[in-house]
Each structure stands twice: as C-alpha cells, then as structure tokens.
Design a protein that fits this description.
It is a single chain. With 86 residues, the protein is mainly alpha-helical. It has one domain. It is 73% helix and 0% strand. The chain contains 6 helices and no strands. It is globular, with a radius of gyration of 19 Å. The protein starts with a helix and ends with a helix.
Length: 86
C-alpha cells in the first residue's frame, strides 16, 4: 500500500500546500494538467500525477524522520522547572 493510498486526502493536500503553497503551483511545477491532483484524490486514475504526489509524500516522510524528538523525561523535567519559576 502506497503513502497515497494510506493518507487522508486533506493530509495530502496539506503536504503539497506546505511545499508549493497551492495545488495549482504543484501542478504547474510538475507539468501536470489542471485539477489533476483533485481528480486523483477523488479516485480517478492518473499514474503520472499519482507518482508526483507519492514523491512529495515520501520526501515529507523523510523530513519527518529526521526530526529528533525530545525524550519524555527531559520534557517532564523542563516542565517542572518552569512551574517552580512562577
């Protein structure tokens, strides 16, 4: 199952908008037909558009993996420290 198949359409649009500012800008940058992203998200097949969307989703997933979360015990300690400062 691909990221495109697993993700919610609104989440997909959010990822595209985050990088390209609009779906139309994404379509222009990728040389896709107008409204092609919306059509794919509605279930109409387009291998080229689906591949472009999948590529953006994979890039976003890689970026998300590179973020290092703060360990829970440090976050709790910082929170307690702030509470005592009041």
């Amino acid at each position: 199952m691909t990221l495109l198949e697993r993700a919610h359409p609104e989440d997909i649009k959010a990822v595209i908008r985050k990088r390209y500012r609009s779906l139309a800008a994404f379509e222009r940058a990728e040389g896709l037909a107008r409204e092609s992203v919306s059509e794919v998200l509605r279930g109409r097949p387009s291998a080229r558009t689906a591949a472009a969307i999948e590529r953006v989703l994979r890039e976003q997933a890689k970026e998300a993996e590179s973020i290092i979360p703060v360990p829970t015990n440090i976050a709790v300690a910082l929170h307690r420290h702030n509470a005592e400062a009041r």
